[in-house]
Specification:
By secondary structure, this protein is of the alpha+beta class. It has 4 helices and 3 strands, in the order αβααββα. Strand 2 and strand 3 form a beta hairpin.
């Protein structure tokens, strides 16, 4: 069984970076829904975790934010800027390298 919390805890920034990398302006609910849909319903991102990570990404200078009012409620939309796009590419490359090393270790057999 997949432990959604373990997957999210170490990879939430990468998950959000990749969703925004390919989808332009998105608000929090859309980001959460995209992660859930892409995982076949196995990843559930809490609002607290999502907005904490988005705030960290804002502080790092990776996202642009615009605010709109929809049905009388304020909604923040997020989009990666060029620095955020570079971060997404760097984070994905590091993740892929980590996965490759982990696969080697898991397949290794002592002589």
């Amino acid at each position: 069984m997949i432990n959604s919390n373990k997957i999210i805890k170490g990879n939430l920034t990468l998950i959000i970076l990749r969703i925004l990398y390919h989808n332009g302006w998105r608000y929090g609910y859309e980001i959460r829904q995209a992660a859930q849909a892409a995982s076949g319903g196995k990843l559930m991102i809490t609002e607290a975790a999502l907005y904490t990570t988005l705030h960290q990404m804002e502080e790092a200078g990776w996202v642009n934010i615009k605010t709109d009012t929809v049905d009388g409620r304020r909604r923040n939309y997020y989009k990666l800027n060029p620095k955020g796009r570079r971060a997404a590419e760097k984070e994905l490359a590091a993740f892929e390298e980590n996965i490759a090393v982990l696969r080697k270790v898991l397949r290794y057999r002592l002589p």
